[in-house]
Amino acid sequence: MLTQFASVLIVLAYSGGMTFVLLKLLSLVMPLRLGERHEGLGLDVTDHGEEAYTHGDGAILVKPKEFSMAGGRL
Predict the structure, then answer these.
(1) pTM of structure
(2) Which of 1, 15, 22, 56 yields a CA-CA distance of 20 to 30 A from 73?
């Protein structure tokens, strides 16, 4: 039982350490986080122009780019 427990701890330490190393190497090439605006709106809105959850308190209205309140077209 102690051998299995030690093996689990070794695997956890190895996988955690290697994940840390890989993320550090990746962060040298590209950012790992999005900008504050993208995080606030969500990727469904900023990347796809649509909202995943349209009902409820957190819902926002996504309007087409060519729409304006001054009589623009849809």
Answers:
(1) 0.54
(2) 56
